[in-house]
Amino acid sequence: MSNLKIKRAIIAVYDKTGIADFARALVDEFGIEIISTGGTAKHLKEAGIPVTMVEEVTGFPEMLDGRVKTLHPMIHAAILADRDNPEHMKTLEKHGIKPIDMVVVNLYPFEKTVADPNCTFEQAIEMIDIGGPCMLRAAAKNHKHVLVCCSPEMYDAYLLLLRKWSDPALRGAALVEEACRVFRTTCLYDEAVSTWLSARINREFSQRTLRLRAWGKLRYGENPHQQAEVLGNVVDSEEPALILASMPNESAEMSFNNYGDGDAALSLVKELSRAKLKKHSVAFIKHMNACGCAIGDDPVDTYRRAYLGDPIAAAGGVLCMNFPVTLDVANTVMNSFGSWGKAAGAAFFKLDVWIAPHFDEDAVKLITTPTEKRKWGKECRLLAVGAMDTPPDPNELDYKKITGGMLVQTRDLLGLNEDQWKVVTRRKPTQSEMADLRFAWLVCKHTKSNAITICKDDMLLGNGAGQMSRVKSCDLAIQLARENGHGDKLKGAVAAGDAFFPVPDGPQKLIDAGITAIIHPGGGNRDADTIALADRANVAMILTGTRHFKH
Length: 551
Description:
Blueprint: E1 8-13, H1 19-30, E2 33-36, H2 38-46, E3 52-53, H3 54-58, H4 73-80, H5 86-94, E4 102-106, H6 110-115, H7 121-126, H8 131-141, E5 147-149, H9 155-163, H10 168-200, E6 212-218, E7 228-233, H11 256-275, E8 280-286, E9 289-296, H12 299-308, H13 311-314, E10 317-321, H14 327-334, H15 336-341, E11 351-356, H16 361-368, E12 381-384, E13 397-402, E14 405-410, E15 422-423, H17 431-445, E16 452-456, E17 459-464, H18 470-483, E18 494-497, H19 505-513, E19 517-520, H20 527-536, E20 540-543
Parallel strand pairs: 1-2, 1-4, 2-3, 4-5, 10-11, 11-12, 18-19, 19-20
Antiparallel strand pairs: 6-7, 8-9, 8-10, 13-14, 15-20, 16-17, 16-18
Helix pairs in contact: 1-9, 4-8, 8-10, 14-16, 18-19
C-alpha cells in the first residue's frame, strides 16, 4: 500500500447536497485541487471555491449536449495509473498527465426518473449515466491509490477519514470498503436500467436480478445443524417489514424461525388493518398459521379473544397487534396465563416474538423486568414496525427457493374483492354473518393450504391448516374449536375455504357442526351439489371467484 497523498480530486455530482461545504473543506483544510464539470463546477464557483474545469485538463470542450465530458485519457489515465508501476508513471509524465487521487461522483437519478408515470422514453435514456459509472469503476479498480466517494451521505465520514489519513491500517481498510460500495452501486444502477428496458419489451421476469444485501448472520437455520443469515431487499419501501423494525430490547436475537413466523403474523395483521373491519387486530401465529386471531373496538378485549382462540398453542408463539403497546396493554399480555390461560387449560404462557407499531418505554420496562413467576419477557423479541395500515408495495415480488433455482411471482395482494362475490344460495348471509365471513376470508387467505377457517363474533374459533385433503382441514378446524372451549359457539359460526370443495363432504361436516354460512372460491365440477346441500340446510354460501392457495 503506497503512502497515498491526495493532491487532486475530480468532483462531478448530480445531487449537489452538501457538495460545496465538502469541497471547501478539501481545499481549505487539505489543500486539494478540485477538477470539475459543467453544473457542478458552476455550483462550486458560485460558492467561492476555486475549480479547474475539465476542458482545461483534457483540451476538449464538453460535447454532444454533455454526453461526453470526462471520457478522455487525461482523466481516466490519471485515475487508473498504478503509482507503484514505473512504466505507468513514465507514461503519465510523457503525456503531461497529473494523477487524480480522489473521485467524488454520484449518478443521474435513473430509478427516480422512470418511476414518474409521465416519464418519456427519451427522458429515461438521458438519465442513463455513462461518464459517472466509468470514473467510479476506474477509481474503485485502482482503489490502492485512489479514494472514491459515491454518496453525499458519506461526506462527513470522508473528512474524518482524511484527518486520520496517516494511519495506514485505517486508510487501507477505507480504500477497499469504498471500492466495494462503488461496485455495489454501479451494479444496482445497471440492473435498474436493464430491468426498465426489459419491461418495455414485456420481459419483466426474464432478466431480473434479486437485489439483496447481507443483513446479519443467525445462530442457525430451521434446525441447529443448518447455517443461516438474513438478507435484506435493497429497494426502498414504505411498507412495514420485520427486517426494518426497531428492537427496544436489542439483546434478544431473532432466529430463522422467528423471522418466518413473524412475517406471517405481520402479513395477516397488515391485511386486517388495511381492510378496516374493526379498529384493532391481534393475531397469534404458530408455524406460520394463525392459532388465535380477533378484531374489535377495544384493544384489551380484542387481545383476550385472540389469546383464548387457542391458549395452548399461543404459548411460545408470535404475537402481532396493530396498536401501540402501552403499560396497560403490556400488563394485560404479561398476565395472560393467570387471567385466562390457566382456567382455559393452558400449562404456561410466553412469547418468542411480539410485534407492534410501537412500545412505550414503561411497557418495555415491565416486559423485560423478570419477576418470580414471569421471567420470559427479557428474552422476548420486541419488534416495533410502525403503522400497519400503509399500502403494500406492489413492486415487491414473492420468491420461493427450489433446488437449482427460484420461483418468482407477484404477491397475493388481493383482499376483500366483494364486487366479485356472489351469493349462490337461496338464503343470503345475515349482517353479522357477513361481517364474520369477511374476517374469516382474510384469515383463511393467510393460512397454509388446504385451509378451513371457522370464525364467529370477530374471533377465530378453529383453523384447519396444511392438510392434504380439504375434508381433513374441516375435521381439524372443528376439533380445535371444540378442544379450546368453543364448541357452543360453532352454532351460528361461519367458515372459509381457500379453494373450492371438490365434493360436498367437507361442507357437510361444517354444517353438521353448526356452521350457518360458508365462503369459498367455487369453480369445482360439483359446485351445484355443494350449493344444493347448503340450500337444504338453510346455510348461506358465497363464491368469491378467487383462490388463495398458500403453500
